[in-house]
Amino acid sequence: MLNSDQTEIDLPPAHSEPESVFSDCGGVHTGSMEDAGAVGLCAQSRMAEPGEAVKKELQHLSREERRRRRRATAKYRTAHATRERIRVEAFNMAFAELRKLLPTLPPDKKLSKIEILRLAICYISYLNHVLDV
């Protein structure tokens, strides 16, 4: 089955001859005229690499459009999701560490992030007051 980017020339050979015309485009030609035509097609496909066409297509795009297309790839989205997951985990760990330092009754009371921040502000101001007295 062919992909949209793949041609018949790109497919591996169906037979197992050691010197196949399709396996090595620059190989010695010992076959028929049909094989000679295939060698010509293979040489043409080697000259026009798919990466060159993509580069030429992207050159005329604006910087923002190139960035938008790059970010639309699955590889980029996966990497971004991984970075975001690591960032959120570090953020949550920082809140957990701060929560351990704050006195509350009961000590294991569940606090939201905003409650942790407000309590930390009050606790810091209390400690400053204690030091001033």
TrEMBL record:
InterPro entries reported in the protein's UniProt record: bHLH_dom, HLH_DNA-bd_sf, TAL-like
Keyword Transcription regulation: yes
Biological source species: Nestor notabilis
Lineage summary: Eukaryota, Metazoa, Chordata, Craniata, Vertebrata
Keyword list, A-Z: Developmental protein, Differentiation, DNA-binding, Nucleus, Transcription, Transcription regulation
Biased composition (Basic residues): 66-78
Domain BHLH: 75-127
Name of the protein this chain belongs to: Helix-loop-helix protein 1
Biased segments, Basic and acidic residues type: 55-65
PROSITE patterns: BHLH
PANTHER family (alphabetical): HELIX-LOOP-HELIX PROTEIN 1 (PTHR13864:SF20), T-CELL ACUTE LYMPHOCYTIC LEUKEMIA/STEM CELL LEUKEMIA-RELATED (PTHR13864)
GO BP: any one term: nervous system development
GO molecular function: DNA-binding transcription factor activity, RNA polymerase II-specific; protein dimerization activity; RNA polymerase II cis-regulatory region sequence-specific DNA binding
